[in-house]
Specification:
Among the domains are: 108 residues, Immunoglobulins (Immunoglobulin-like), CATH 2.60.40; 123 residues, no CATH class; 113 residues, Nuclear Transport Factor 2, Chain: A, CATH 3.10.450. Helices cover 41% and strands 20% of the residues. By secondary structure, it is α+β, with helices and mostly antiparallel strands. The protein is built from 24 helices and 16 strands. The strands form four sheets. Strands 8-9-10-12-11 form a five-stranded mixed sheet, with helices on one face. A four-stranded antiparallel sheet has the order 4-3-6-7, with no helix packed on it. The two termini are 59 Å apart. The protein binds zinc ion. The site of zinc ion has 4 residues, from helix 10 and helix 11.
Amino acid sequence: MAVDPREQEGAAPRWRLLALAILILLLTMAVLAVLWQVPRLLPGVYGQTSNAALSATPDATPTPAIEEPTITALYSSVNDPARAVSFHLEAEVPPDRQVSEVLLWYDTERGHEVSQIAVPLSHTVTVSYQLDAELEGLTRTLTTTQELDYWWLVQDTTGETIRAGGTAVLGPRLVAMTAAPAPEPTPIDFTWAMSETEHFRFYYVPGTAAERDRFELGPVAEGSLAQIEPVLDAYLEGQMSIYLVPRVFWQGGAAYGDKEQLISYLDRNYTAVETWSYFTHEGTHALAQDILQPKENGGGPDGVLVEGLAVWASGGHYGYEPIDEWAAVVAASDEYLPLADLRAGPFYDFQHETSYLESGSFVQYLVERYGLERLKALYGQATKDAEHDEELVQSLYGKGYAELEAEWLDYLAGLEPSEEQAELWRLQVRIFDLMRRYETELDPDARLLPSTAPPEWVSDTLKVFLDRVDAPVNLVLETALIAAQERTKAGDLGGAEALLDEVEAALDAGGELVGPSLAARRQILDALAAQDRVILRADADAYRAGVAPNSELARAEAIAERLVPPLRSYEQELVRLDLSDDGLGARGVVLVHAGAAGEGFAEDGRLFAVEFVRTGGRWLMSSRDPAQPDLFPPPAGADSSALPD
Ligand SMILES: [Zn+2]
């Protein structure tokens, strides 16, 4: 009911009159014994009337009518010997409406289906549901706790809803029955989804980050191609095929013949390689297929030429890097790998970053000193046969590999890399060595690289590439590896080293999170998991207890809004996390995995930037805002001598 604000000014006498009128009206109605209908007859007056007016007639006042669906009682009871849990609900909707739907969810496989409970048409409802664990099983996600979460949802005839829930504490017999849900089998009829641009076909797994970002990925890939084409003076005809997989494997990129590439694309990519540099690197491999010349006895360029071309054309291995300055650091150290060894191979068995860097710098030297055409002739005619290739290089350059290597080392010896560049190089090697150790020990599937391109993959391979490990130790160490890279890029090398020390200590301890910052990360992970549960079961009090009291998140409206959707499942996957130096704050990014009863849920698959504060030994969420993935084409204007940004 709209009230003209001018009428309210100095309205006390009029209010008294109104109160008196209402009093008389109420008394009259009491005599008529229809008092209970007042709210329905005059809902506006009733709602607007001040408490003062009502308190004048306490005896005649009925329970104030509610204005929205309300859950008035909610509890569970557990009968452990009978292996049963009962859920009870009492609810009420405004008297001029009726309850139209009652839903019950509880955290078992069966409960996730969400039961619709039949109720008679009325504006009040009292209902119970008994879970018979022997009949329907007790397949739960929370297998290590005695708690079973549940919620009720009540909808009225206007479509308004209320959702609230709680926790039943299971007895020992029920706990003993608890089983974990079977992992989802790989669908036998799996097919890649596809989207395309002028030069690319992107194949992705439905429901993954690649699908979410497919329209942004197109310009990144096209921009990366436009970057390398003039460098290589080779231009793509037709399209390349890019398979975007939602897991990390090796360093996250691979190229197959026939211009097919495999690239890790996921929000929690712990290689932290910038996406555009996958496209320039693997794209160079694809373009280079057109440089190859037909050969009588087969064979092709060695690893130095293949990877050197890709690193050089990309301006670096994992982004823009000071290729020659870093190579000068390596050449002056014991880590230097003689070119003859690298060329003889197996190339991929050497320290990865060092072999790629040396190759990139050597190819860069050949191109800058002797021109691109000569390098392409070498690349196109090389066969990996030592004698043949030595003759080939002699015929093209008028000198052998040993002489070219000596020239190149002379050039490197004349460079003066800064101490910071040298430190950055050592840090890069350390980060990636540690990352590969992490893969081997705690994410072993990341060490698989199929010899055939994705279209030929069988279901076992698909299963590996459609899945990733999600144990707390994986989330903590992966986000720590990403944070170490972010600190490095931001120039905080000391901070990055300290974090790597902790990751290394954790691996030494077999995955135990011994370092203080890793322990804090684990606490934040637990706080997030606890918040997932309270959001899922719509427990407003527990939710409030987990957010910073002065933050926007703690406002009553914000809480109500957060708890409205009828969620079947809810998980905030931590994909980024770093702590402030004083250890009292943290910021990160979460990826929401959620499903709601009925229609889809808008937050599913989206990213949110989150912040936490440490108060009284607990981590409280202090902000949460929608975030976008870090996706950009190769930064313009940078050259190969720039520092990684
Ligand atoms: Zn490569």
